[in-house]
Amino acid sequence: MICARQVFLCFRAIERVGDKITGAAGPVFVTLGVVLLSIGAACFFEVVRPTLPLPWLMTPICLLITFNLLMHYFWVCIVPPGFVTDPPRERGSGWLWAKPRGRNRPPAGAGVRWSEEVNITTASVTRCKRCKVLRPEERAHHCRICNKCILKYDHHCPVRVNQCVGLYNERHFVLFLIYMCLATFCYAVSGWRGVLAALGLSDDEAWPYYSPPVFFIATYVLSVVLCLAVTIMTSWHLYGISCGETSVESADHEQYRQTAKGRGETFVNSYDLGKRKNLELFFNLGVDGYPSYTLLFPFRIEPYTDGRSWARRPGYEGHLGVREGEELTDPEDDE
């Protein structure tokens, strides 16, 4: 037991060192991401776009995908995820902020900003054992890298966005992944002729483009790899959203299921309102949300809640099959 404990503490120490290194190198990773996205876009539009059929139709579509990809990446990197100590945010002004569809909107500071047709409960308040601040007991977690509590914490992403993914930027993160899938798929499917030309295997005598052949080949190979990897990641995120859970909650709920099963009970996620409603709430679409076209343009929008009240199944005040004291806390709290 003592040996196992020492091994656990050793791996935990290595994990913390890794967190500090990746946290410090976050700006470098983001800069590298911007450079790769820019080079990939330049190579695509110079080499691949002229070979596409129906250029009058395909060019605007490619521009729209690229614009969404870059803007959602920009938003997810600069929009704070939602720190518990921050006051509730209100909709900003400007053309990049979408106008909500609902006419009977709750007043500022009302908490939930969505429909009255769902059961809304206010989260109880607890004190974080790490940073000592009061926070909603539900769906808020302490990030050991940021050293702050995040509303609707999903995960910390040091490599791609250099910050946490939470209440206010999770929608941008998921849409960035979706448009990354579309962009890399288009590149992989339509760019193979350019690869042959870059390798000197086509009928063309010389490479006629400004983009260096090595850049084009490298971005094409990267697109093929990312298309496979990001599609799997995006599918997993969308599945979690359709089940009404974050990445952290997905792991927690699995443990709740095992605990409830051991007692002969069934765990029920009270946040799960059905796949369609869960997706509507996440993307804030619907009668009292935003129009569906906000998925096709990188608008800024409000989440359906301020992170202190949540939609639940009718008649539920908490998860079924989880008893008081069994709720999982932040991993660092148990040390």
Automatic annotation (TrEMBL):
<feature type="transmembrane region" description="Helical">
    <location>
        <begin position="54"/>
        <end position="75"/>
    </location>
</feature>
<feature type="transmembrane region" description="Helical">
    <location>
        <begin position="173"/>
        <end position="190"/>
    </location>
</feature>
<keyword id="KW-0564">Palmitate</keyword>
<feature type="transmembrane region" description="Helical">
    <location>
        <begin position="21"/>
        <end position="48"/>
    </location>
</feature>
<dbReference type="Pfam" id="PF01529">
    <property type="entry name" value="DHHC"/>
</dbReference>
<dbReference type="InterPro" id="IPR001594">
    <property type="entry name" value="Palmitoyltrfase_DHHC"/>
</dbReference>
<feature type="domain" description="Palmitoyltransferase DHHC">
    <location>
        <begin position="128"/>
        <end position="251"/>
    </location>
</feature>
<keyword id="KW-0808">Transferase</keyword>
<keyword id="KW-0812">Transmembrane</keyword>
<keyword id="KW-0449">Lipoprotein</keyword>
<protein>
    <recommendedName>
        <fullName>Palmitoyltransferase</fullName>
        <ecNumber>2.3.1.225</ecNumber>
    </recommendedName>
</protein>
<dbReference type="InterPro" id="IPR039859">
    <property type="entry name" value="PFA4/ZDH16/20/ERF2-like"/>
</dbReference>
<comment type="similarity">
    <text>Belongs to the DHHC palmitoyltransferase family.</text>
</comment>
<dbReference type="GO" id="GO:0019706">
    <property type="term" value="F:protein-cysteine S-palmitoyltransferase activity"/>
</dbReference>
<keyword id="KW-0012">Acyltransferase</keyword>
<dbReference type="GO" id="GO:0016020">
    <property type="term" value="C:membrane"/>
</dbReference>
<keyword id="KW-0472">Membrane</keyword>
<keyword id="KW-1133">Transmembrane helix</keyword>
<feature type="transmembrane region" description="Helical">
    <location>
        <begin position="210"/>
        <end position="232"/>
    </location>
</feature>
